Task: structure prediction
Amino acid sequence: MNQSILFPDIQAWDDGSQSVRFTAQQAGALIECSVTKQKLEQLSSSVIESEQVAIDVFVDYRFDLEEIAESLIEDEAFNSKGHIIIN
Result:
């Protein structure tokens, strides 16, 4: 893992985008990242029916999701708002 990109142990459900939001830190800059409910369902092979289940699945797959986010950050695959979206 690239030590210049850090992931604090903080995540939250965003009802509007139906995703779990988390943050990466690179060279002191905060980068907002999120993973969609659909991606979480794909990873877990289950249907996510609540906010808590989404958070639990995120925690279960945190390492894999952080690796995906790290690759996207390194590839500078930011959306128009400067965020990383895993979908």
Q: What stands out?
A: The CA atoms of residues 16 and 36 lie 11 Å apart.
